[in-house]
């Protein structure tokens, strides 16, 4: 089964597998959304089923909640948890300050709420997600449907006034209809190429009426676990830099690979 996985999936898997070690018995855990976070949920599910790990998970999307339940993880709401020990989630981009772009899957709002309600946020990513400057990945902005075209115009004017490169804004679609988030909102993707001042852009965007949240995660992530297609894993800490370099063995995880291949 291992041979059927692409290098990118192996990279995501080893990052998730290593990050699962941050989770200890009794913890309340924020569960991210996306293809990398899905690996984490499967890893944690295996630890619950086979090692007796007792955790309660707070999912960041409907689909992660479903996956977690299927994996055997007890799912609770953020309000029930009140506070989380750790959140582990994927990212679309991360930079050397561990600032992120998230929301490629449209889950940025719940993800940001959950991550900021956690003692620690650990990001899991394949090495291709690392960038010198955020912005090559289109920045998702969640907006309420009411007046969305006016909100879009205001965003475009804001980008012009900030002299941001790129500036193209597109409404994310799902077939012929606008993409709907779990909160019933729309996503505008900002094609910026390069974001010079992430802090300022994030603040300015969130001041526009109609904008619910943007996909810039600034000063939220504490640790990034970077996976490589050959099994190498690097753990990078916001204060200490690279704290670990290692390699994970695929063989012991064959049943997980089998699950995914089904
Ligand atoms: O809305 C989706 C999330 O922010 C994801 O964590 C992000 O898009 C990364 O997803 P993936 O692990 O599939 O690349």
TrEMBL record:
Active site annotated at which positions?
111
Q: Name one Pfam family in it.
A: Rib_5-P_isom_A
Annotated substrate binding sites: 33-36, 89-92, 102-105, 129
User: EC class of this enzyme?
Assistant: isomerase
Query: Which parts of the chain are coiled coil?
Result: none
Please list the reactions this protein catalyses: aldehydo-D-ribose 5-phosphate = D-ribulose 5-phosphate
Please give the Gene Ontology molecular function terms for this protein. ribose-5-phosphate isomerase activity
The biological processes this protein is annotated with in GO are: D-ribose metabolic process; pentose-phosphate shunt, non-oxidative branch
According to the lineage, what is the superkingdom? Bacteria
Query: What pathway or pathways are given for this protein in its record?
Result: Carbohydrate degradation; pentose phosphate pathway; D-ribose 5-phosphate from D-ribulose 5-phosphate (non-oxidative stage): step 1/1
Keyword Translocase among UniProt keywords = no
Q: What cellular component GO annotations does this protein have?
A: cytosol
Task: Kindly state which keywords UniProt assigns to this record, in alphabetical order.
Answer: Isomerase
What EC number(s) has UniProt assigned to this enzyme?
A: 5.3.1.6
This molecule's function is given as: Catalyzes the reversible conversion of ribose-5-phosphate to ribulose 5-phosphate.
Q: Which family does it belong to?
A: Belongs to the ribose 5-phosphate isomerase family.
- Record's subunit section: Homodimer.
Know the name of this protein? Answer: Ribose-5-phosphate isomerase A
Query: What is the species listed in this Swiss-Prot or TrEMBL entry?
Result: Cribrihabitans marinus
């Amino acid at each position: 089964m291992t041979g059927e996985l692409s290098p990118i999936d192996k990279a995501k898997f080893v990052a998730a597998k290593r990050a699962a070690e941050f989770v200890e018995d009794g913890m309340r855990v924020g569960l991210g959304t996306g293809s990398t976070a899905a690996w984490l949920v499967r890893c944690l599910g295996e630890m619950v089923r086979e090692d007796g790990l007792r955790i309660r998970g707070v999912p960041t999307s409907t689909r992660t909640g479903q996956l977690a339940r299927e994996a055997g993880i007890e799912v609770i709401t953020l309000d029930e948890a009140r506070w989380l020990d750790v959140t582990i989630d994927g990212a679309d981009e991360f930079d050397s300050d561990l600032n992120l772009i998230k929301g490629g899957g449209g889950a940025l709002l719940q993800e940001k709420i959950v991550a900021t309600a956690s003692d620690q946020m650990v990001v899991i990513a394949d090495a291709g997600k690392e960038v010198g400057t955020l912005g090559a990945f289109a920045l998702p902005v969640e907006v309420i449907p009411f007046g969305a075209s006016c909100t879009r115009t205001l965003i475009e004017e804001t980008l012009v006034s900030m002299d941001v490169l790129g500036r193209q804004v597109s409404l994310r679609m799902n077939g012929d209809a606008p993409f709907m988030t779990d909160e019933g909102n729309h996503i505008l993707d900002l094609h910026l190429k390069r974001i010079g001042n992430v802090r300022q852009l994030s603040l300015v965007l969130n001041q526009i009426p109609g904008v619910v949240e943007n996909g810039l995660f600034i000063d939220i992530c504490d640790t990034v676990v970077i996976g490589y297609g050959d099994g190498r894993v690097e753990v990078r800490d916001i204060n200490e830099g690279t704290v670990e370099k290692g390699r994970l063995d695929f063989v012991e995880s064959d049943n997980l690979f089998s699950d995914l291949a089904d």
